[in-house]
Write the structure tokens for this entry.
Amino acid sequence: MSKSNKQVVNITSEYITLGQLLKFVDLIPSGAMAKEYIQEHEIFVNNEYCKMRGKKLYKGYVVNIDNSIILEISNEG
């Protein structure tokens, strides 16, 4: 069994913010909870530590949450 849960996230816009992404993949029930979730979890964007809910995520970016949830941004499909 794999320790990580990798998921490709398809977006239709140029980018998605970290806060929007968390809601989009159902990690939080509302955008208002993004700040709290981000503060409570270890999040890396392209291997760089990130605490900004407004961080813009573009195609090809990889988000790693608590070293267990891996989200790859794509705009294909």
